[in-house]
Amino acid sequence: MACNSYLAPSPEQSLEAEAEEVTEPQDGELREASRNETTTEMHSKPRGQLATMKLNDTKAGMEGLDTDKINQIIEEASRGSKFYNHKKQRQEKIDERIRRMLELKDSFTPEQIARAEAQMDALTAHLEQSRDLSRFIVHVDMDAFYAAVEMRDRPELRDVPMAVGSNSMLSTSNYAARKFGVRAAMPGFIGRKLCPQLVIVPCDFDKYRAASQLVQQVMARYDPDFSMVSLDEGYLDITDRVATEMDGDTGDQSEDEVAQRLVREMRAEICRLTRLTASAGIAANGMLAKICSDQNKPDGQFFLPRERRAVLDFLRELPVRKVSGIGNVLSQQLAALEVTRCGELLERRGLVRLLFSECAQLSLLRAGLGADPPGVGRDEDSHQKSVSTETTFAATADPAQLSELLGELCQQLSEDLRRKGLRGRTVTLKLKTSSFVVRSRATTLAEPTSAAAALLSATRPALARELAAGEPLRLLGVRASALVAAEVAAGRRQATLTEMTGRAAAPRHECPVCGRTAGSLAELSAHVEQCLDGEAGGGGEQSEGRPTGTDDCAAESESGNGGAIETSGGDAAECGPTKEETVLSVGSPQPSSCDNVSEDPISHAPANGISDPAACVGPSSASDGDRLQLGNVEDTTPASAAETACGGPSAASCPVCGRPMPEELELINRHLDECLNQKLLSRLTDGGPVGGQKRPPAPHSGLPRTKHKRIDSFFTAVKRS
Ligand code: DCP
Ligand code: MG
After folding, report:
1. Is the dihedral of CA 122, 123, 124, 129 positive or negative?
2. Residues 430 and 478 sit within 8 Å (Cβ to Cβ)
3. What is the C-alpha end-to-end distance of the chain, expressed in Å?
């Protein structure tokens, strides 16, 4: 589809380009590097480089680059800057966390690992049983979106490497610039070091919003219930549309061929209407469709057959970084465990079980299996806890500029809320200072609103207070949470979003200790832990989210989205989120009238060990509990992961003893425990080695075996009567 000819000129062509003048960084980022500076050694990184600064070359258009050379230039260009110092501090914390993780890993006995694997196999069997391969889910993603809009409108930019943003931060780059290693979430001054002729143009959100509206018009024709997750990407379910076509005359085209043809037509229409190209992925669920839309970028599409075998084959060699939500930090942790490909997530599932939070375990398993519920886009909407928008800019303390920006953000948030038919009662101002400290200020209103003026008056005083402190800001964001449907808000009574989307009937999970209920298994298990430790105080009943105060830490640390879900971009958070988009903050906490300062996102890891609460992967993560109704699943059929991973049938038998398994996860876990203990006992009485080399028992870290056993034994969903 040759819609425009201005994508991806060769680097040679671009050498003739004239660099546009860009304002120097206002916060003195370009300082002379300190010669004596020591950098932290990291796993699998070139010597002396900060892993957290390494180029993420998994973005489309960045294949085959000399990453070592690029990383060296990035390192040299940024050393000594605030940006670099921030990254360095962050890397030290990541290193420390990985060091502790590896220490813990070395303390596990083979039996502990075998037990953990067996538990993951049971989870695998549940996921396999609920794997839905019946839908055609499409993920549409515009190519180099902001850059493509600028190139469309300014022909002189078409054949040169260019980026959109500022000398401090780039929002995106065109494909020509990507060949030099220039990409989104990179400071412009580093981009210029990589590509001296780089042209940087400022953002023009009105234009991007207008283009997005046109894209949405086209998408609506293929699925009226499509859902956008940012200005340039959205999900559709075209299953019904394909079925309708099949009822007509499609010649000898198969369902799969019809789906692909429809997507080609949709992309052509987008192109005609916007003069911009879109890429698309078609697969059985949103997680896979999103990965697929990146496969043939720019201006291409990729179809992944809706067959289990094909999905597993596709994922086996796929870099984990390609999975939405696996960002720099999590991928460093995984790399330390020798997991760089999705297939390895299945191979090392025992360690994943022992070392990561439950939310992350499940998400990583889903990523290895490609087994997500199909309706990702809509599912997110139905769980949606907040709507937000934010933008990064060159650091400034100019009150006029900042208040104008705040006005624009409130306007955009208002439009997003109205489009979704929602109003928010809690309005949060988020900001990042020039020294990368993230703060949020939340205000709870008397009435939920979607009005720009009300959003502005809720956030303006907080901004004024910040400005009085005098420190320049580099990011502003506004979030609406405590959402209600607009009709409900306007009517007689208030309903939660859950009620509005009909999810009130979903099973609740009852704590076996105190009898309170939680909205998801993840919440329940966190609660049970506290409850058993005698820590669960009052007021936590039927909590819908994590405690106040971790939202921004999640956004800062890994995902860029509250609730630890990155639905786009992949690593917007690497340099602080710069994506000007509507973020679906699924299952994220709802700050109420609080100020939250997050200077140290990493240190917010849960008390139960190493894992990062933000380390949830892909669109599925925050609603894990809701989606994995383990206690309600009938016909439990655990299979060995070896079988699962290599495509064998799911067996309803124990992966240890081969006998038929019970149906409830609680019973499965009990069976597995007994079974593994018996195996251990019989080996001991036979005098043989117990799973290889004998190790001393794990130190009392609070994380391994007993912990999981304790949590899992309560994994029973209790239907609310
Ligand atoms: N964006 C941003 N900051 C980021 C990432 C993205 O402001 N860190 C904005 C600019 C992008 C737009 O969001 O144009 C869409 O993001 P994508 O990740 O889809 O990137 P592009 O559309 O630019 O490129 P691609 O062709 O890889 O999709
Ligand atoms: Mg895009």
Report:
1. positive
2. yes
3. 55
Peptide bond into 638 cis (omega under 30): no
Q: Residues lining ligand 2 (ion), CB within 5 A? A: 141-142, 145, 232
Closest-CA residue to 402 (of 451, 452, 459): 459
Tell me what pLDDT residue 165 has: 94
Of residues 233 and 27, the one with the higher pLDDT is 233
- Name every protein residue with a CB atom under 6 angstroms from any ligand 1 atom: 59-60, 141-146, 171-172, 184-185, 232-233, 297-298, 568-569, 572, 578-581
Concatenate the DSSP letters of all residues of 167-211 into one string.
SS-EEEE-HHHHTTT--TTS-HHHHHHH-TT-EEE---HHHHHHH
**What does the pLDDT read at residue 576?**
32
How far apart CA 655 and CA 121 sit, in angstroms, is 7
Residue whose CA lies nearest to ligand 1 atom number 5? 579
Per the rule left: phi > 0, alpha: psi between -120 and 50, beta: everything else, 436 is left
Nearest CA to 420 out of 582, 578, 654, 565 is that of: 582
Strand bridging mode 162-165 / 301-303: unpaired
Mutate to test the pocket of ligand 1, among 7, 157, 169, 172 (most ligand atoms within 8 A of CB): 172
pLDDT in tens, 43-81: 334 445 677 777 877 788 988 898 888 988 888 888 888
CA 143 to chain centre: 20
Known catalytic residues are: 233
* Identity of the residue numbered 684: L
Place of tokens 């234009």: 207
Residue in 81, 74, 69, 82 with CA at minimum distance from that of residue 33: 81
What separation in angstroms does the CA of 91 have from each of 95, 186, 435, 557, 577?
6, 17, 16, 11, 17
Please report which ligand is nearest the Cα atom of 148.
1
Q: How far is the CA of 707 from the centre of ligand 2 (A)?
A: 42
Q: Please provide the DSSP assignment of 118-151 as one string.
A: HHHHHHHHHHHHH------EEEEEETTHHHHHHH
Confidence band for 134, pLDDT divided at 50, 70 and 90: very high
- Give me the mean pLDDT over the 215-231 stretch: 94
Residue 141 CA to ligand 2 center (angstroms) comes to 5
Strand partners, 718: 508
Helices 358-369 and 308-316 cross at an angle (nearest 10°) of 110
Pick the atom of ligand 1 nearest to 298's CA. Answer: 26
CB atoms within 10 A of CB 1: 14
Q: Which of 173, 230, 232, 277 to mutate to test the pocket of ligand 1 (most atoms within 8 A of CB)?
A: 232
Residues 6+ away with beta carbon under 8 Å from 245: 258, 262
Burial (CB count within 10 angstroms: exposed 0-12, middle 13-18, buried 19+), residue 457: middle
Question: How far is ligand 1, taken at its centre, from the CA of residue 222, in Å?
Answer: 24
Q: What number is the average pLDDT over the span 133-149?
A: 97
Identify the H or E element spanning 475: strand 473-485
